[in-house]
Specification:
- Keywords: Phosphoprotein.
- It comes from Sulfitobacter guttiformis.
- This is Response regulator receiver domain-containing protein.
- By secondary structure, this protein is an alpha/beta fold.
- It has a single domain (about 1-125), classed as Rossmann fold (3-Layer(aba) Sandwich), CATH 3.40.50.
- Helices cover about 45% and strands about 20% of the residues.
- It has five helices and five strands, in the order βαβαβαβαβα.
- The protein has helices at about 10-25, 35-45, 60-70, 90-95, 110-125; strands at about 1-5, 25-30, 50-55, 80-85, 100-105.
- Strands 2-1-3-4-5 form a five-stranded parallel sheet, with helices on both faces.
- The protein is globular.
- It starts with a strand and ends with a helix.
Protein backbone atom coordinates (compact mmCIF):
# COMPACT_ATOMS: atom_id res chain seq x y z
CA UNK A 1 0.00 0.00 0.00
CA UNK A 2 1.18 3.49 -0.88
CA UNK A 3 0.68 5.86 2.05
CA UNK A 4 -0.58 9.18 0.66
CA UNK A 5 -1.09 12.40 2.61
CA UNK A 6 -3.70 14.51 0.80
CA UNK A 7 -3.97 18.17 1.83
CA UNK A 8 -6.98 19.96 0.30
CA UNK A 9 -9.29 22.62 1.74
CA UNK A 10 -12.25 21.81 -0.56
CA UNK A 11 -14.35 18.99 0.94
CA UNK A 12 -15.83 17.97 -2.43
CA UNK A 13 -12.38 17.57 -4.00
CA UNK A 14 -11.20 15.59 -0.96
CA UNK A 15 -14.19 13.26 -1.32
CA UNK A 16 -13.71 12.69 -5.07
CA UNK A 17 -9.97 12.08 -4.66
CA UNK A 18 -10.54 9.68 -1.76
CA UNK A 19 -13.10 7.64 -3.70
CA UNK A 20 -10.81 7.49 -6.75
CA UNK A 21 -7.78 6.41 -4.73
CA UNK A 22 -9.68 3.88 -2.62
CA UNK A 23 -11.11 2.28 -5.79
CA UNK A 24 -7.59 1.53 -6.98
CA UNK A 25 -6.95 -0.51 -3.84
CA UNK A 26 -3.32 0.63 -3.81
CA UNK A 27 -3.45 3.63 -1.46
CA UNK A 28 -3.80 4.25 2.23
CA UNK A 29 -4.99 7.85 2.36
CA UNK A 30 -4.88 10.38 5.17
CA UNK A 31 -6.70 13.59 4.31
CA UNK A 32 -6.16 16.98 5.91
CA UNK A 33 -8.16 20.14 5.30
CA UNK A 34 -5.30 22.59 5.86
CA UNK A 35 -1.55 22.89 5.99
CA UNK A 36 -1.62 23.20 9.76
CA UNK A 37 -3.72 20.04 10.05
CA UNK A 38 -1.19 18.22 7.86
CA UNK A 39 1.75 19.43 9.94
CA UNK A 40 0.12 18.01 13.07
CA UNK A 41 -0.42 14.56 11.52
CA UNK A 42 2.34 14.03 8.97
CA UNK A 43 5.08 12.57 11.20
CA UNK A 44 2.86 9.96 12.79
CA UNK A 45 1.41 8.90 9.41
CA UNK A 46 4.84 8.73 7.67
CA UNK A 47 3.56 9.07 4.08
CA UNK A 48 5.20 7.74 0.94
CA UNK A 49 3.88 10.66 -1.12
CA UNK A 50 2.26 14.07 -0.62
CA UNK A 51 -0.68 15.31 -2.70
CA UNK A 52 -1.01 19.02 -1.97
CA UNK A 53 -3.48 21.66 -3.09
CA UNK A 54 -1.61 24.81 -4.08
CA UNK A 55 -4.13 27.46 -3.04
CA UNK A 56 -5.41 27.08 0.51
CA UNK A 57 -6.29 29.68 3.12
CA UNK A 58 -3.66 30.24 5.80
CA UNK A 59 -0.85 28.18 4.32
CA UNK A 60 -0.40 27.30 0.65
CA UNK A 61 0.59 23.84 -0.49
CA UNK A 62 4.07 25.12 -1.21
CA UNK A 63 4.40 26.59 2.31
CA UNK A 64 3.07 23.36 3.79
CA UNK A 65 5.67 21.36 1.87
CA UNK A 66 8.45 23.72 2.96
CA UNK A 67 7.48 23.16 6.60
CA UNK A 68 7.28 19.37 6.21
CA UNK A 69 10.67 19.27 4.46
CA UNK A 70 12.28 20.59 7.67
CA UNK A 71 11.78 17.09 9.11
CA UNK A 72 14.69 14.96 7.80
CA UNK A 73 12.41 11.90 7.65
CA UNK A 74 10.15 13.75 5.19
CA UNK A 75 12.76 15.57 3.13
CA UNK A 76 12.75 13.04 0.27
CA UNK A 77 9.01 12.26 0.15
CA UNK A 78 7.74 12.96 -3.40
CA UNK A 79 5.33 15.89 -3.58
CA UNK A 80 2.58 16.25 -6.16
CA UNK A 81 0.68 19.52 -6.40
CA UNK A 82 -2.89 20.02 -7.57
CA UNK A 83 -3.85 23.43 -8.86
CA UNK A 84 -6.64 25.14 -10.76
CA UNK A 85 -4.17 27.81 -11.85
CA UNK A 86 -1.99 25.55 -13.93
CA UNK A 87 -0.04 28.23 -15.77
CA UNK A 88 3.04 26.96 -17.54
CA UNK A 89 5.40 29.20 -15.54
CA UNK A 90 3.94 28.08 -12.21
CA UNK A 91 4.19 24.41 -13.20
CA UNK A 92 7.78 24.86 -14.33
CA UNK A 93 8.68 26.60 -11.06
CA UNK A 94 7.14 23.81 -8.96
CA UNK A 95 8.92 21.11 -10.95
CA UNK A 96 12.21 23.02 -10.77
CA UNK A 97 11.81 23.22 -6.99
CA UNK A 98 11.40 19.48 -6.55
CA UNK A 99 7.74 18.69 -7.22
CA UNK A 100 7.31 15.20 -8.63
CA UNK A 101 4.34 16.36 -10.72
CA UNK A 102 1.60 18.97 -11.03
CA UNK A 103 -1.98 17.86 -11.65
CA UNK A 104 -4.42 20.40 -13.06
CA UNK A 105 -7.89 20.85 -11.60
CA UNK A 106 -10.39 19.75 -12.54
CA UNK A 107 -8.64 16.38 -12.52
CA UNK A 108 -9.77 13.06 -13.95
CA UNK A 109 -10.63 10.82 -10.96
CA UNK A 110 -10.20 7.70 -13.08
CA UNK A 111 -6.62 8.67 -13.95
CA UNK A 112 -5.55 10.03 -10.53
CA UNK A 113 -4.04 6.88 -9.04
CA UNK A 114 -2.03 6.20 -12.20
CA UNK A 115 -0.80 9.82 -12.33
CA UNK A 116 0.38 9.55 -8.73
CA UNK A 117 2.16 6.24 -9.31
CA UNK A 118 3.90 7.65 -12.40
CA UNK A 119 5.02 10.73 -10.44
CA UNK A 120 6.44 8.52 -7.68
CA UNK A 121 8.29 6.46 -10.28
CA UNK A 122 9.75 9.60 -11.92
CA UNK A 123 10.81 10.86 -8.51
CA UNK A 124 12.58 7.59 -7.71
CA UNK A 125 14.41 7.65 -11.04
CA UNK A 126 15.71 11.17 -10.34
CA UNK A 127 17.33 10.15 -7.04
Amino acid sequence: MIKLLHVEDDADIREIALMALEMSGEFEVLQCNSGNDALEKVSEFAPDVFLLDMMMPGMTGRETLDQMRKDPALSAVPAIFMTARAQHSEIEELLANGAADVISKPFDPMALSEQIKQAIEKSIQRT
